[in-house]
Design brief:
single chain, about 190 residues, two-stranded antiparallel sheet, about 30% helix
């Protein structure tokens, strides 16, 4: 059975994007980028919503060949292209780069994929993660707190009908001042 993780760069006030949808404040330095590369290398299957897939697929397929691209970014481009992806969308006609399109209910499909997948899975993006968090399908949260405050925007955690108790399983501080907090839900 797969282990479903949800992780993103998060502002100190809890947002993954500012009120205008801008992620520029969260661009990682080489050390943080290497963390995400190492994590991506271990992913057996990644779940994407349309918006994040379009953002990623507009950049990463050609990023590795750009003149002067830092090695850590070229490595991520290769990893992203090779990583199996399931893209949830009712509007996209096709997807590329080791991706397949899924139009079914995200909670039902994620349950099935967890049962069929050996290894780590990830859900990308707060919108797609929200129903999976509410359904209790996320097995680990990786909150990479970035030293910036946005004052509003898209929250990492969705509104919840009840408290979600978490157990800290790892914390790590990066030279940039970013802090990784890995949590597992307390079950039962």
């Amino acid at each position: 059975m797969g282990k479903l993780t949800y992780g993103m760069n998060v502002s100190v006030d809890g947002y993954i994007a500012d009120a205008n949808g801008d992620l520029g404040w969260s661009v990682p330095d080489d050390e943080l980028h290497q963390y995400w590369n190492d994590r991506t290398r271990d992913i057996a299957l990644s779940l994407y919503g349309r918006k994040l897939y379009e953002l990623m697929s507009a950049h990463w397929p050609s990023a590795g060949q750009a003149p002067g691209v830092p090695p850590v970014e070229a490595e991520y481009a290769r990893l992203w292209l090779a990583m199996p992806k399931v893209v949830f969308s009712r509007t996209l006609e096709s997807v590329h780069w080791n991706s397949r399109l899924e139009r079914g209910d995200v909670v039902e499909v994620a349950r099935r994929l967890k049962a069929e997948t050996d290894g780590l899975m990830e859900v990308g993006g707060a919108t797609l993660a929200a129903p999976l968090v509410r359904a209790g399908l996320v097995d680990e949260f990786q909150v990479l707190v970035t030293p910036a405050a946005t004052g509003g925007g898209t929250p990492f955690f969705p509104s919840l009908g009840k408290w979600l108790r978490l157990e800290l399983v790892e914390n790590r501080t990066f030279s940039s001042g970013a802090v990784l907090l890995r949590y597992e839900p307390v079950r039962g």
